[in-house]
Amino acid sequence: MPRLTVLVKGEFDRLNKYNLFSANFVVLLFWVLLSWFLEGEVLRTFLPVIFLMDSVMMTVLLVGATLFYEKKEHTINSIMISPVTENEYLLSKIIVNVLNSMITVLFISVAVYIIKGVTYNYLVLVPAVMIVTVVHTLIGIRFSYSAKDFTSLLVNFIVYAFLFLMPSVFAALGIISAEVARYLILLPPEASSILISAGFQDVELMKILFGYGYLAVLALLIYRYAVKPKFNEYLMKETGV
Amino acid sequence: MIKVKDLHFKYPRNESNTINGIDFEIKEGEIFGFLGPSGAGKSTTQKILMKLLREYKGEIEYRGKPLASYGDEFYQDIGVSFEMPISFSKLTALENLEFFKNLYKNTVDVEPLLKQVGLWDDRDKKAGEYSKGMKIRLNFVRALLNDPKFLCLDEPTNGIDPANARIMKDMIRDFRNKGGTVFLTSHIMSDMDELCDRVAFIADGKLREMDSPRNLKIKYGKRSVKVEYRENGELLTQEFSMAEIKTPVFCDLLRDKEIETLHSGETTLEEIFIKVTGVALRA
Q1: Can you give the CATH number for the domain in which B162 is found?
Q2: Which of A57, A191, B81, B169 could bridge across to B143 with cysteines, CB 3.0–4.6 Å?
Q3: Mean pLDDT along residues A14-26
């Protein structure tokens, strides 16, 4: 079995055994329950928020929790003295989170179709959720490596959410005016929000293209200049004295 | 198998070097030990040899090629047992081993290894429910999973009861006897004395002495014989140098007195370490 497959499978097994899947599932049920009480346009406005929250917030928390356990149990040492490369290790985290986001898309989509008969453009939504999850997995990894514990990871994320995510959520809910919202596209969560909302409403093609280009470049830059150096520093700290 | 020349290493946040220009060679098929107190640089050296710490200065060769030139294939060859317990606590011992096993090309059957270290009956127990000693034994099995040629062991018997420590020491010797090479770091002098073909004393990041335990004892040890005997109901002691045991005084004593004990005055590795480095091992 290729090593990347082993890492991904192992990560899924652990998400299950450490009850992180269960926690994620409870959140999904909560979203479905909320959807139950919403109707028509309100529901269509709310659905992109669910996918945005899942691919941003849940992704950061999920990757943070898995890295927290790896740190606590020193298992990263054991992985890094195997033939696994840094790239394979980090890529496995990204793949697992993307697959997890896909599970969310599938679950919510089937649920809202069954309970409300609502459909949307899945072909536009799926790639949007994928790229948003990739970027936020990397952001989550970066946060985890500079956090002392899970609490400080949460604090990092709350700061990030207030600075970058809340304006996007406000824009998605129409609290921020469209004029101001135009400039929010430079915030990663807003670019994410635009790409995800394209699955539910018409969005200018230029905005979509910019969003994909921007998030792709951002992912590469975060990986190269924020995650990899911090990973090496983290590894030295973990294995050193 | 491994040649280290003028190795220096400094952790980014430390002011001074942890390793200060050390040279040594680990020959194929030997157990080579690093003996030193905590913080002396033992584990750091081991982590450099495992390619976990890469920003070192100096030369390291593995099988005639620079260590840095090796890619992931290097890890197919080596097995590592860390001092601290390393396992996914919510996975069973067998699930832990299965996960790591799948990362290697060559692997061994874990059943005989688990049986040898006494964990087979607890193989389906979660690693988090294991005692510290059991976790360390699991670490050791994990180190042997990929049928390594070179084994790095950091304090392999620390926290293990004497009976299991004996089993692990026998397994380490077996590994060596089958042609494997072992780099062992420990502050437990008796393990080093018992297992190592050669030991190096490390203190403050510098190697102070390197030889076989036997040679070190001959070089630094007090070579004498102590005799305890009874005379007129009183217990007396007399010590003779090796030169003196051929003299009539010693022979007469053995012949004429009621000897109770006869001890060679062998110096322990720990005493020699302190003598050579001026540092206590358990510092």
Answers
A1: 3.40.50.300
A2: B81
A3: 91
User: Quick one: which H or E segment has residue B262?
Assistant: strand B258-264
Question: Is pLDDT at B281 greater than 70 in this prediction?
Answer: no
Asked if residue B57 and residue B161 are part of one domain, the reply reads yes
B68 DSSP assignment: G
Q: Is residue B177 helix, strand or coil?
A: helix
Mean pLDDT (chain A, rounded): 89
Task: From chain B, pick out residues whose CB is under 8 angstroms from the CB of A235.
Answer: 52
ipTM: 0.85
B7 or A235: which carries more pLDDT confidence?
Answer: B7
Check residue B39 and give its pLDDT. Answer: 80
Confidence at residue A240, expressed as pLDDT on a 0 to 100 scale: 52
Residue span of the structural domain in which B247 resides: 222-265
pLDDT band at B283 (very low <50, low <70, confident <90, very high): very low
- Measured between CA atoms, the residue of chain A closest to residue B104 is A83
H helices, E strands: number in chain B: 10, 13
Give the domain extent around A109. Answer: 3-239
Q: If DSSP states are collapsed to H, E and C, what string results for chain A? A: CCHHHHHHHHHHHHHHHCCHHHHHHHHHHHHHHHHHHCCHHHHHHHHHHHHHHHHHHHHHHHHHHHHHHHHHHCHHHHHHCCCCCHHHHHHHHHHHHHHHHHHHHHHHHHHHHHHHCCCCCHHHHHHHHHHHHHHHHHHHHHHHHHCCCHHHHHHHHHHHHHHHHHHHHHHHCCCCCHHHHHHHHHCHHHHHHHHHHCCCCCCCHHHHHHHHHHHHHHHHHHHHHHHHHHHHHHHHHHHCC
Residue A237 has pLDDT above 90, yes or no: no
Supply the pLDDT for residue A241: 41
- Chain A: closest CA distance from residue B51 (Å): 8
